[in-house]
Amino acid sequence: MPLKTLKKDTAKALTLEWVLHVKNYRLNLDKDRCVGCQICSLACPKEAISVQKYPKKTGEKAKKAKVDIDLAKCNFCGICDLMCPYGAIKVTINGEHALSVIEKESFPQLVRDIRFDESRVPKGYAEYEETCPLNLIKVSWIAADGKSVENAGALSKAKKKRLEATIEVEKDYCPCCRVCEFKLPEGAMRIRKFIYGKIDIHPEKCPAGCTDCLDVCPITGALYYSEDDKKVHVNEVFCVYCGACKAVCPVPEALDLKRTQISHTSTRSGTWNKALERLASPVEISKELKAKGSHRAVDSVVRLQGLKREKGEQRRT
Fold first, then answer.
1. pLDDT of 302
2. pTM for the full model?
């Protein structure tokens, strides 16, 4: 048992701590990065995380849902850290980013497949960084003399030709929405989503003029308002299926969200199977469990063949 427990909730962060004799466990939720989605609450095996909708005031836009964590239930396992699409949660031990579920190989990591090709970016292209709705892209332009150029867009064409681009993407915080891939020149960015799904908005059930889901969606272009029918519609090319929209929808039946696939590192964990049951559709669960069953069968055959060869060699000797 911890000697001391702490919980601090400010405008910028929610912090939980366990203070032990030789270890200090800390969970930090960055409220600027948190979008109030459903992923962490669904993944948590202790049901320690809740998502609470703020009351909406007349004439104001909807606010993203509030994420709260029950210190009495949390055991600092780090699953919420691993599963947050936006990297808003960090769990540390004695100040080091160390997760017990990774060390024990009892939970997978999300696969963020993000690739970029600097050679396909037009020289001095000033709008590169602006293509990311979360401001996670940083482009540095290097002149022929090796010095950094601050305002590359203002250079002459001759000087732009001699520039070299260096691209940095904050991958740990990237939900892989693919907005940058579509806005940039073809081939400059290649993004593969790590959560696939299906989202349906039923206009006949939406309250007239309601844009709550659009108000809180963190991905520009994933939802849009149509002047034709005065309703919100979905662009699934950019949707990351986090559930921030679902968390604030005033009519639950008006918005259906199903996650059909989650790309992750290999694992054979019962903890992951249970998390998958809460996160994804039954079809996805059955597919993954069948795949794991096939892998186990293959491993059993390989082991059996190895034993047979070993016994054969022993007889010959």
1. 42
2. 0.84
